[in-house]
Amino acid sequence: MKRILAVLMFYSLSASFALTQMAAPLVLERKILLPGVKGKFDHFAIDEVGNRLFAAATGNKSVEVIDLASEKVTQSLTGMGKPHGLVWVAATRRLFVADGEKAELTVFEGEPLKLLKSIKLFEDADDMVYDAQSEMLYVGHGGTDSANPASVAILDAKRLSVLKQLSMAAHPEALELDPGGKRVFVNVSDAGEVVVIDGRTHLQMKTWTLANAKGNTPLAYDGPDDLLLVGCRMPAKLLVLNGKTGEQLSSAPADSGADDLFYDAETHRAYLITGSGAVDSFSLSSSGKLQALGVTHTAVGAKTGLLVPSQSAMYIGVPGTGTPSEVDVYRTEAQ
Predict the structure, then answer these.
(1) pLDDT tens track of the chain, all 335 residues?
(2) pTM given for the model
(3) Which of 9, 83, 215, 309 is 20 to 30 A from 140, alpha carbon to alpha carbon?
């Protein structure tokens, strides 16, 4: 009997070990140290042709341009307030930066990058998405007071002009694009809502109120299956919504401080980056069911990053206090 129990225990431990091994979807490859850069990061963008990573070093009041081949900073765009959202448009080779403190959208182009234009927005200019087909840029901003109403600015990214402002119930935390359906999803965190904007008419199509959840900060979209992933802070969990109706299909508990979220359609994996120092990884079925794959521990305050599926890489910004800030590079493991 004891021998049978020992055998059963062995196989149980072996199975547990195998599951642990499979539940490591992110593997740390290297660290890119940024001497002279301190504080937290917000969003990232990438120039895949030029092999450059753009990092909004919010705590440093700069945007750092990192050459990924040499792992060196080739340019530092300084003099900013709080750089938040970043968009790199490869066709025009322009970098768009949403500056929350200066309440403006700054546009850079050229080699090296030089300021082309500053476009006035409301305070807390934050996340944004770019639709390459229509050449439209959607920027979430405002919501601090009556002089800075919560809005989504719709801009002509080629002519650099604001076409329309869409009012929101509160500050827009995150935006996500559905290129095929020509929709823009907007997370309105304080209201516990997701707003859907028609990409053709630029009108608000729908408002979905989340059930028993607020603090919905990051978004990601599964285009092939028309599923919207929503990272929430109150309580800490990941939701999956039907992309057409907003119906909640599933949810899973998550680490606290959800701030960035990515989905890889090829591997059917979602990655939720949290400020508590963890990246929660999930697999997503075509019917919208989540399966937890494991937790990758990073550092407290490492709340944002960038998934680059073509490189099978995840870049995560790690804030520096007594030491320089860094960007940690993880390899995404497809099991």
Answers:
(1) 444 434 333 333 333 333 344 546 899 999 999 999 999 999 999 999 999 999 999 999 999 999 999 999 999 999 999 999 999 999 999 999 999 999 999 999 999 999 999 999 999 999 999 999 999 999 999 999 999 999 999 999 999 999 999 999 999 999 999 988 899 999 999 999 999 999 999 999 999 999 999 999 999 999 999 999 999 999 999 999 999 999 999 999 999 999 999 999 999 999 999 999 999 999 999 999 999 999 999 999 999 999 999 999 999 999 998 899 999 999 997 54
(2) 0.92
(3) 309
